[in-house]
Design goal:
Helix content is about 50%, strand content about 0%. It is mostly helical. The chain binds zinc ion (ZN). Zinc ion (ZN) binds next to helix 1.
Length: about 120
């Protein structure tokens, strides 16, 4: 079978190759406990490249939310609970917000954080 994330040969009965399986194992172990930057540092320490990590995190298996959406919702909820709010954002909520942001930024106004043109004020 081929890896569902990167299409590399995974083995006879495996749906993920060893590399992608390692990414998933790290995510499962740390999810909700560390911030995204810490997670990136762990991936680096494990010798995984950004490409190897990104293709797993951004893969959409079937119709579900990606792992990145799941992580974002877990981190957002942890943050909100830390601020005393309920924190009930689901991975699908994250996916919807991300998709709506993508479509609005495609309409060609200034993207977030971009400086206004000189002399505009
Ligand atoms: Zn793979």
């Amino acid at each position: 079978m081929r890896c569902v994330y990167c299409r590399a040969r995974a083995g006879l009965l495996r749906r993920t190759c060893p590399t992608c399986a390692r990414v998933i194992a790290i995510v499962d172990k740390t999810a909700g406990n560390v911030g995204f930057q810490t997670l990136v540092d762990i991936f680096k320490a494990e010798g995984l490249t950004k490409e190897q990590v990104d293709r797993v995190l951004d893969a959409h298996i079937g119709q579900g939310a990606s792992i990145r959406d799941r992580l974002t919702s877990q981190m957002t909820n942890a943050l909100m609970r830390g601020l005393g709010m309920p924190g009930r954002q689901s991975p699908d909520d994250v996916k919807r917000v991300r998709e709506s942001m993508n479509s609005s930024s495609a309409q060609g106004t200034y993207s977030q954080g971009e400086e206004p043109p000189p002399g505009a004020h």
